[in-house]
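Write out the 3D structure for:
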Amino acid sequence: MRRQGLKAFLVSCVFWLIPGILAGVLTAFCYSLREYDYTVRLTEAVLEGKSIAAGLKYAGEKGGSADKESVSDENKIPETSGGAGEADQAAVDADAYLQSYGYGKLDRFPGHLPYALTAGIVLFEISGAILFFLRGRKDKRCRGRIEGLTEYLKAAGRGEAAALNRQEDMFSHLEDEIYKTVAELACTREEAVRDHEILAERTADIAHQLKTPLTSMSLMAELLEPSLGEEDKEYLNRLENQVERLKGLVEGLLTLAKLDSHTMVFHRQNVEAKELIELAAEPLRAMLRQKRVELACSIGGTKEQEIWLFADVQWTAEALLNILKNCLEHSPKDSKISVSCEENPLYTELIVEDGGRGFSKKDLPHLFERFYRGEEAADGSAGIGLALAKSIIEKQNGQVRAENSAQGHARFCIRWYHP
């Protein structure tokens, strides 16, 4: 910063040097002409036969300002009977007389130039330095005000904004508008957080209320099974499947409610990526065998190196399970689901790609919305699995996005940024 200030000061010195030089040259030129004119008038008086003292007084009066029209008669050289014409002719004779002795109008210019240049440069450099420092002080005050307002906005973004220290200057109007906007945003944020907490509490209450009758229905179905015939058992199996589906939906709602209310605690630890993928895929092994879908894992690319994640094992495995289940539901028989994991200095990336037909353009913007069911959603899907996975990953300094691969398959890209 100091080096930049010194550079700016040197640039300012060079800038003011140019008008200083021009002013010095102009001053030397004008002074040389003025001195020559004074010498011509003195020579004119001497050639008319007057004394040196009278000639000096005459030259001084003739060189005075034009507004001094009346001067005492004893201080003037009497005019000759020829009038103004003869006076002009005398001035011409005086000029020719001086030139005959080699005395020209700008002969004194080289002698006056060094002094005039020095005076002009010094005066302009001093003026430039004063202006530079005054402008520097003003810029410093402006930067201080801008930095203060910037810090205030950052604090407001973190929810830590306090009252502004009001100052009356050019930023006062902007300061007022920022303060009013931050106050309105703070009120809106508090209302949104309060409404969100209320919604999460009510969702959790409803989910808890549903768990009891669902458990009773499941128990009654188990008690009825021995006394039913084969045909009735088929209906009982359907009923049990629906009960299990409702249980999964209730558990998902409870988890989302905990995430929304920030009451879920993540116990993050270092876990190997391959181990985490196997843990997430374990509940899907039977379905993978049934559809003859291969789950291919590639960790570290061609190097096959160990990659570690800093995440909550249980909940991260739950998020991966929901993503793998979505890929499996949309993969045809005898296809493959590819899971690859690589890392760089910024993040660790896990890519899951199925063998299906990919996402439709209509579904892509809404895949992670709660209760959204796409055009080709599986039967019994509630539409909260991907939303739950997104919330869990984002709570652990990660992000997830969905896209279509170059081959047209569905692909999920998950990134965990390094702490």
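Residues 70 and 263 are 101 Å apart (CA to CA).
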